[in-house]
Specification:
This protein has about 250 residues and is mainly β. The chain contains four helices and twelve strands; from the N terminus they run αβββαββββαββββαβ. The strands form two sheets. Strands 2, 3, 4, 5, 7, 8, 9 and 10 form an eight-stranded antiparallel beta sheet that branches. Strands 6-1-11-12 form a four-stranded mixed beta sheet.
């Protein structure tokens, strides 16, 4: 095949498989909720947990900022990855920017509601294809973050602007020691790729719903009864607690 024909074929393939193009009619609704990952602690409150280090803890307030959700296609063949790498379309985004596969609206999420209550994050309109992962990025809230105002309400208000995590409550050893108060804040970043088990959007199945779950009773993993929680990567715990329900079609 002549070089000019090869070049034309490559351009046609890039146009056909470009992951950043919006295709009308495709719609993925995103939501997020909370849940326990482990059995409830006996004689504990609604937000009481027990970790592997023997720390019993109760949250009185817990807030985290989800900065973005990015939909990632399934692994491609080597030649497709090469062609996509030659594409002039950039795949880098600034903070809180959005694209057909990326929801860049930050949300401040808390444990004020009941487990199972779903907070709507927004709607993506990605190109048709098979998606195997979603990248959740937790980062400091900006002034436009959804839920910022509600975090300042109630008996324990928190200003989450510039913060990615704030948790407070009490902790104690399981042997009946005196409960100690804790208050921890993070301004860091943490990302996790959540497995989607092959979400497919096509002309035959143009719409789906995807709900993420944060297992809040994993957020204090690694915290010792007598040590401050700030010695542990709490924001990393939040990211690692994320999972996804199987996608459904409305």
């Amino acid at each position: 095949m002549k070089p000019s024909v090869l070049g034309a074929a490559a351009l046609l393939c890039l146009a056909a498989c470009g992951g950043g193009d919006r295709v009308e009619g495709m719609e993925l609704s995103l939501g997020i909720t909370t849940a326990r990952a482990r059995p409830a602690v006996e004689a504990g409150g609604a937000r009481t947990l027990l970790n592997a280090q023997g720390t019993r803890a109760s949250f009185t307030r817990a807030l985290v900022t989800l900065g973005s959700v990015e939909l990632l296609p399934c692994e491609e063949a080597g030649w497709l990855r090469l062609l996509r790498g030659l594409s002039p379309v950039s795949t880098a985004w600034a903070h809180s920017s959005s694209s057909p596969r990326r929801l860049g609206t930050p949300h401040v999420l808390g444990l004020d509601g009941a487990d199972g209550d779903v907070t709507e994050l927004g709607v993506l309109r990605p190109p048709p294809g098979r998606y195997c992962r979603a990248r959740l990025t937790f980062e400091p809230a900006d002034s436009d973050a959804q839920g910022l105002a509600s975090a300042t309400e109630g008996p324990e208000p928190v200003d989450m602007e510039g913060r990615s995590l704030h948790v407070r409550g009490t902790r104690s050893p399981t042997d009946g020691g005196v409960a100690q108060a804790f208050d921890a804040t993070s301004t860091g970043h943490s990302s996790v790729d959540v497995v989607l088990d092959g979400l497919t959007l096509s002309e035959e199945q143009p719409r789906a719903t995807l709900v993420f779950t944060l297992a809040w009773d994993m957020w204090l993993d690694g915290v010792e009864p007598q040590e401050p929680p700030t010695r542990v990567d709490l924001l990393g715990n939040v990211a690692r607690s994320a999972s996804a329900r199987p996608a459904s079609t409305p």
